[in-house]
Design brief:
It is built from 26 helices and 33 strands. It is of the alpha/beta class. The strands form ten sheets. A four-stranded parallel sheet has the order 2-1-23-24, covered by helices on one side. A four-stranded antiparallel sheet has the order 6-5-7-15. The protein binds one RNA strand of 86 nucleotides through helix 7, strand 9, helix 10, strand 13 and helix 11.
Length: 822
RNA sequence: GCCCGGGUGGCGGAAUGGCAGACGCGGAGGACUCAAAAUCCUUUGCUCGAGAGGGCGUGCGGGUUCGAGUCCCGCCCCGGGCACCA
């Protein structure tokens, strides 16, 4: 489309200006009020796509708006530059992940620069920078020393496609890898873990203090999965010196326990199995251990959990409430990794137990009275206790307390809190990540690499193939080393750290990236932290956002970040996704729409305005056939702004007329609307309000009766300032034309609405009869209820409409509405 | 199955219990032009009507209210999250 000005030239000019002059560089000794605005640092996958553009457009609006509000705004940029895609691509192309990654970083940076977003580029960080790795490794060792990092053998998630283990958080609920989509396998391996479970309670409680979307908060609460209950003993029938320990959240249903179940991995299992049952139990356990997590957990779907595989162990335990002996089963619906790995089963009040009991013909005893009409199925809701001895008649909460006391006295019962959250598995058997800085010595075992030898950087001449072992393991020069303690032969850890460890602290490095003798100065970091506004995609709702919260808490506790607030991100905004043909836009789907083609036509400003205008920022955007036209519409609006600013046929008069006054009022009302919209993240309505203002000014300036010069100048100046955080280039250009030699539009302050002008001098009051609008009257905004009623009833149209009928009621809501009810 | 969102013109969307459809896209008509593009103006929920004007209308069915897109109850559909965690 033809533009009234050279968009590319204008945008290049201002981008160069901001960069050369370091307009958005901010120093740590800045005395203005501070504001830390941050977009999640990207994985460098190539040129920016529309998701990035959307993210950085919102971020830049916040940065420029808060700057105009007089704050010192920290706005850094960097790259989450370690990761599997680079390694896989490098294997394919016979290149090195670093070369590949740095080429992608350059591409992304170039397209981000052309967006014209304001960043302090001096603070740029990237994960694979040895200067950054040094501190990633230092933190690992600090965690190790504090007992927060440990090595253990465990059943872990192995992704065959990625040729590495994964954290629980990276496995989707259907048992596939969130990255490659491969079915994740279970393997018993010795791996490094971070003790995130130590922080489960605090991670859960502090969610309440965060200004985050409820959706994200709920997801994190569910992920942590706190449950309160009792752990107690079920004594073995015939040998009361031994017992099966179980966990339950419903001790009150104890009288309904008709059997018990242990997980196939339970350590006591083979003590319980009698000779006659050995064969069937062996078969069951073998099947369970071969089955993938998916098969084991997803089999309950359709038939309401009828597929409950299990076998009798041959042993019995005593129900401590009824003193009756009940059979012990082994079944794969009980998990070895949660609670005690064994449960008391109450079929009448638990769906899973009900399904199992039905299948295996076990007795079902109700202990809670279900509501009328509930039927024979399991019932786990509120109700009076029945068949429950001393708890009969109690409600669930009261019975829980009574049952807990009973178990404490009679069955070694202890109140217990369990979490679904597991420790964070951080080992990865891949090359392109931060090496774990420990060595293994035959004499001294696990030995930390001395801090002065950090960073441990992987050598370049490594054969990278996906063998299931870290590529570093085959590099003799890297692998073989000496023990820092005894100098004897030792071997290096060859696994690398999960890349989520890198992204768990980058926001701290941004606050003080200039120092080389430590990761950051806690005093400098404390000036900026916590991040005032964090912006990113919903896909990080659990992974990155939970890990970062854990990191900061741990870093504060171990003395790396003393004095910092314990939460990294005060406010979080999660933007919607861009969809093409209904599916998420992503490089792997090959459906990216690059911004470059728009930069040359509608400009970065046009594209930015589109992203702001298309809908609520939190909503997904469908990229359709009509999107091109919508983007052009945004560019057209900017052209109209440009033309109005250059309009030189205006006839001016000296007196301020009523029309001029009304324009001033519109201008100030728009200030109020846009300011409010900015605070509420309602950017689409802000754009609409500014468009309306332009229409008003434009029509008024073209009138033959003329316009008041000072009013036109004020109006245009305010319009440019309101628009400046959204479309920074064109507004900077027009402002410079209008105010040569003065500070630029981005250095001006955010306009303030004059309350006396925002108020309306007269308003339209609607008059309804039985809820339908029958007349409109111009009234004073402070009309009284009586006057409003009188005016409504006196109106000619209303009188005519009523035809003498007497209203039964008149509801007046001055000054907006009067409703006459017949 | 459970927990969140959401359902408004041809399309994206707006609307603190008070004029439904702001703003934009698209469409229609007009001005300018030799012509086109660009620009500017008018118009644009559906429907009945020549017109004035009327009726209907925010997924469906009820309810509360003088008044409901908005609040309550029960459904339907779409999207997302969780899913044997005892």
């Amino acid at each position: 489309m033809a533009r009234p000005f050279d968009v590319s030239a204008v945008e290049k000019k201002w981008q160069a200006c901001w960069l050369d002059e370091g307009t958005y560089d901010v120093d740590n000794d800045d005395e203005r009020e501070r504001y830390y605005a941050l977009c999640m640092y990207p994985y460098p996958s190539g040129p920016a796509h529309q998701g990035h553009i959307r993210n950085y457009t919102f971020g830049d609006l916040v940065v420029r708006y808060q700057t105009m509000r007089g704050k010192a705004v920290l706005s850094p940029f960097g790259f989450d530059s370690f990761g599997l895609p680079a390694e896989n691509a490098a294997i394919k192309a016979g290149s090195h992940p670093r070369l590949f990654t740095e080429a992608r970083m350059a591409e992304l940076k170039s397209s981000v620069r052309r967006l014209g977003a304001a960043y302090d580029w001096r603070r740029e960080v990237y994960s694979h920078d040895p200067n950054y790795m040094r501190w990633s490794q230092t933190f690992f060792l600090a965690f190790l020393e504090a007992g927060l990092a440990y090595r253990a053998e465990a059943t872990v998630n192995w992704c065959p496609g990625c040729a590495t283990v994964l954290a629980n958080e990276q496995v989707l609920s259907d048992g596939t890898c969130e990255r490659s989509g491969d079915l994740v396998q279970r393997r018993d391996l010795e791996q490094w873990f971070f003790k995130i479970t130590d922080y489960a309670e605090e991670l859960l409680n502090d969610i309440d203090t965060l200004e985050w979307p409820d959706r994200v908060k709920t997801m994190q609460r569910n992920w942590i999965g706190r449950s309160e209950g009792v752990e107690f003993d079920l004594a073995l029938q015939g040998d009361h010196s031994r017992a099966l320990r179980v966990f339950t959240t419903r001790p009150d249903t104890g009288f309904g326990v008709t059997y018990a179940v242990v997980a196939p991995e339970h350590p006591m299992l083979w003590d319980l199995v009698t000779d006659s049952e050995r064969e069937s139990v062996t078969g069951l356990v073998e099947r369970a251990s071969l089955a993938s997590e998916l098969e084991r957990t997803a089999s309950s779907d359709a038939g309401g959990g009828l597929d409950k595989r299990g076998a009798f162990t041959g042993s019995f335990v005593v129900n401590p409430f009824t003193q009756q002996s009940v059979p012990v089963y082994v079944a794969d619906y009980v998990l070895g990794t949660y609670g005690t790995g064994a449960i008391m089963a109450v079929p009448a009040e638990d769906e899973r137990d009900f399904a199992f009991a039905t299948l295996h013909a076990l007795p079902i005893v109700r202990t809670t009275q279900p509501p009328d009409g509930h039927g024979d199925g399991p019932y786990s809701g509120e109700g009076q206790h029945i068949n429950s001895g001393f708890m009969d008649g109690m409600d669930v909460a009261t019975a829980k307390i009574a049952a807990t006391q009973y178990l404490e006295k009679n069955a070694h019962g202890v109140k217990k809190v369990n979490y679904r959250l597991r420790d964070w598995l951080v080992s990865r058997q891949r090359f392109w990540g931060c090496p774990i800085p420990v060595v293994y010595c035959d004499t001294h075992g696990i030995v930390a690499v001395p801090l002065d030898q950090l960073p441990i950087v992987a050598p370049d001449d490594v054969v990278m193939d996906k063998t299931g072992q870290s590529p570093l393991a085959t590099h003799e020069g890297f692998r073989n080393t000496t023990c820092p303690i005894c100098g004897g032969p030792a071997r290096r850890e060859t696994d690398t750290m999960d890349t989520f460890t890198d992204s768990s602290w980058y926001f701290l490095r941004y606050t003080d990236p200039f120092t080389s003798d430590r990761a950051f100065d806690p005093v400098e970091a404390a000036k900026w932290m916590p991040v005032d506004q964090y912006i990113g995609g919903i896909e990080h709702a659990i992974l990155h956002l939970l890990y970062s919260r854990f990191y900061l808490k741990a870093l504060v506790d171990i003395g790396v970040a003393p004095g910092l607030a314990r939460e990294p991100f005060k406010r979080l905004f999660t933007q919607g996704m861009i969809r093409l043909d209904g599916s998420k836009m992503s490089k792997s789907k090959g459906n990216l729409i690059a911004p470059e083609e728009y930069y040359d036509t509608v400009g970065a400003d046009g594209l930015r305005l589109f992203h702001l205008f298309v809908g609520p920022p939190a909503d997904d955007v469908d990229w359709t056939d009509q999107t091109e036209e919508a983007i052009e519409g945004c560019a057209r609006f900017l052209d109209r702004v440009y033309r109005l600013s250059h309009y030189d046929e205006c006839f001016f008069h000296d007196e301020i007329t009523l029309d001029d006054e009304e324009v001033r009022r519109e201008v100030h009302r728009t200030i109020a609307k846009v300011t409010d919209g900015f605070e509420r993240w309602s950017y689409n309505t802000c754009v609409a309000a500014i468009m309306e203002l332009l229409n008003t000014i434009s029509r008024w300036a073209r009138r033959t009766e003329g316009a008041h010069r000072a009013t036109l100048d004020e109006s245009l100046d305010i319009l440019l300032r309101l628009l400046a955080p959204m479309t920074p280039h064109v507004t900077a250009e027009l402002w410079e034309e209008r105010h040569p030699g003065e500070p630029g539009v981005h250095a001006t302050t955010w306009p303030e609405a004059d309350p006396t002008l925002v108020a309306h001098s007269s308003v339209v009051m609607v008059v309804q009869v039985n809820g339908k609008v029958r007349a409109r009257l111009n009234v004073s905004p402070d009309i009284t209820e009586a006057d409003a009623t009188a005016a409504a009833l006196a109106d000619a149209d209303i009188v005519n409409f009523l035809k003498g009928a007497t209203p039964s009621r008149v509801v007046a809501r001055p000054p907006r509405l009067v409703n006459i009810v017949l």
